[in-house]
Specification:
Length: about 290
């Protein structure tokens, strides 16, 4: 009889818990994502839970942290996919998943609570590392596409188009990528009534990337002084190509240093084993 009562109480508790979670999901406001980008894959998998926590844990995100996340998401090109609160909720969900993984590992390994805490902390900061790597890859793609885009912009301006028309032609003739997304955003801002100089400055502030800042500064200076943009843009294209070449040269010089670790820990031991094994066998056979 006591076992039956315990089972009924447990079933009732589970039903109440499920109903509470369902009520929370129903009360969470829906978000209109018609004009927004798709969230990253890991966020899409757990999107209902992330959206729920984003509306429930807003009090845990300070104004300073929200501004920092806004800037980081904008630089990574994720500002139309995630809000700062959704990104913070993703970090919380990641920490909970890390804690569950730590519980599983603590049952296999000795360490108990310390393993759970360490894995949960690593999982909490993993979205920040992902965002930083996404920003790095995006800036690299922009750096690669920038010289060719400036060349097309120069040709269009020298053909008689103004800066906005030249940008439209350069975007139409260029391959898609992060740079084209940002330039299209500049053109949309100009069409919406924003001054071209302000739109360019917003473009530079969004990326906060030195080559783009230099490029925008040259365009703004040329617009203000009324000078010909052709020579300015040619100098910018040459400078961007020089920077890209210097970066490739730097990476080539860093390659031998990066190879030392694999050489020392993986290749050299195998080589020494292959060379030393016959010598050791001869010593053993001779009784030494």
């Amino acid at each position: 009889m006591l076992g039956l009562i315990s089972s009924l109480v447990l079933a009732l508790a589970i039903l109440v818990g499920l109903w509470s979670v369902y009520s929370l999901f129903r009360q969470a406001p829906t978000e209109d994502r018609t004009y927004k980008d798709k969230p990253p894959l890991l966020f899409r998998v757990l999107w209902p839970l992330i959206n729920l926590l984003a509306n429930s844990l807003g009090w845990a995100l300070s104004t300073k942290a929200e501004e920092r996340y806004t800037t980081a998401l904008r630089r990574a090109g994720q500002d139309y996919a995630l809000t700062p609160r959704q990104f913070f909720a993703g970090k919380v969900v990641s920490a909970v998943a890390g804690a569950l993984l730590g519980v599983m590992l603590s049952g296999m390994l000795e360490g108990g609570l310390s393993i759970i805490v360490v894995i949960a902390m690593l999982a909490f900061f993993y979205p920040d590392l992902w965002l930083k790597e996404t920003t790095k890859q995006r800036n690299l793609a922009i750096l690669k596409a920038l010289p060719f885009f400036i060349d097309l912009l120069t040709l269009s301006i020298e053909a008689g188009l103004n800066l906005s028309g030249a940008m439209q032609q350069a975007v139409a003739k260029s391959a898609g990528g992060p740079l084209m997304v940002e330039i299209n955003r500049v053109l949309r801002d100009v069409r919406a009534g924003k001054a071209r100089i302000d739109a360019l400055r917003d473009f530079s502030a969004r990326l906060d990337f030195t080559p783009i800042t230099s490029f925008v500064s040259a365009l703004v200076q040329g617009e203000k002084t009324g000078s010909s943009l052709g020579p300015i843009l040619r100098a910018q294209a040459e400078q961007r190509r020089t920077e890209r070449f210097l970066r490739a040269e730097k990476l080539a010089m860093e390659a031998p240093v990066k190879m030392l670790g694999p050489l020392i820990f993986f290749i050299f031991p195998c080589t020494f084993i292959v060379i030393g094994f016959p010598i050791a066998m001869k010593f053993l056979a001779s009784g030494l």
